[in-house]
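Complex 545.
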Amino acid sequence: AVPVLKKQLSLFVSLTANLASGILPSSGDVQVQTENLATQLKQDNVVEHISAARGIINFKVNRKLLAQKLLEPFGNGEDDKFGLNSELFNTLTTGTTLVEYSSPNIAKKFHAGHLRSTIIGNFIANLKQSLGNDVIRMNYLGDWGMQFGLLGAGFEQFGSPEKLKQNPLQHLFEVMVFFLFSFALQVYVRVNKEAENNENMKQAARDFFRQLEQHESHAVSLWQQFRDITVKEYQDIYERLGVHFDVYSGESFHQDQAQQVMQQLQSRGLLKTSEKGTGVVDLSPNRDMTNVCTVLRSDGTTLYITRDIAAAINRKEKYSFDEMIYVTDKSQENHFSQLFQILLAMGHSWADGCRHVSFGLVQGMKTRAGEVVFLEDVLDEARARMLNNMSQSNTTKELENPEDTAEKVGISALIIQDFKGPLQSDYKFDWDRMLQAQGDTGVFLQYTHARLCRSEISSIDTFSFWILYPLIYSVLYQSAQDLQPKHLVNFLLKLCHLIASAHRELPVKGSPEAVAQARLRLFSGACSVLANGMRILGITPVNKM
Ligand code: ARG
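Predicted structure with arginine bound:
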């Protein structure tokens, strides 16, 4: 039935296209035209009814047949698989997608932008996976650059290598009160200040970074420790967020390759020297140096963009991806546009498959303790606030692990607040609004899911009523086009509102057996669609709250 339906639909599309392109007369009576069009469509057991009225063609799909067809592959323990084996998905092109997201900087503050990148990138990776792509999840750490000169030199002065070795985490906390990167940030800040009036310190920082660039073992081992500790800290926090990475890469990995990139640019005649003595690539349309991108400092060291060029080429060789998606805030739009232009100029036509997903700023992300410095603070605050809200409800007492539930619900509140609008927009961070149980929030989604899990509904095994399935399919397809989570979020919120009225209008208790069974199936199907949709957004559905 599905292929027949597809055929009928494509007939529709070609008819409308013909009309638009003037093959069919566009003047004359609209009613006559639509009737003409309608007669070309065949009424059969798939399309049950066709009618034309005032320029609109209506048709009715045989719902029973569609439901039956869609149900066929399900109900046998495959509910969680979004029908990847369904004929509906054959039309989609799949392949390998590399998604690079989160990518914080060692020894620098983790800001709201990194949180956004983490959850948006996770959503895109989940979405691509649910549509049948092979997905590589990559974290590209900011683990190289002059700040490591300051950090290294500072640590040698103020830090304690023994303590760092014996009990790294404790040492971090000792030195830096509550900051996640503890010593690293403090050392960085202190050195920065001192460096203003202390030439020796500046020199020490430069020396340390030079030693690092020359792979001097002492400098490298200290740097390695900073990096390892940071990654470990982050992994714990990512776990709380339900986010994981297949690869932890970083700028440091491409230090040497960046020098090779310089040679490639040179041999292609793309490398120019600016008046200031820096190495640049001319990106202006008339090649008159009015728009250049600096790829080499005058002292011969490479930059952020140079490492990105090397990283992209290296990833293509290593993973032979079909598409690569970078997720960062919009301040880096120019950076990525330059990156893709340079790759194309170097003859890497696959750069056409690279995409930058950018997002707006978050205003006013604060916790009770004040300005947010680390991601952990935000997660702790979300959990605490949610726990407090939940303590007013009776069901919380029945929970085995209320903290864990509060954490999951709190995180879903953060995610829905972030995903509701277009990613490009800035938004105001608002604890009270995002944690409302009634409004269009993550708490509302969780509450609806938990309610569906409760009582009679759970008694009906995993069988799903997949009539809801084509709906979510079209929403996922739409999200895959522009990589915006808002389509799925709005679909799920709408679904929850419908479920709320269904709870009122379609009681199970007290209904005749057959009716009760049908309703139970409806609720059970809604529950599974909701849960799967939430998981794609990066939310772990809770069964009780
Ligand atoms: N570490 C960078 C930052 O925090 C983000 C990295 C984005 N990815 C990239 N390939 N440049 O700003």
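The domain at 377-537 is CATH 1.10.730.10 (Isoleucyl-tRNA Synthetase; Domain 1).
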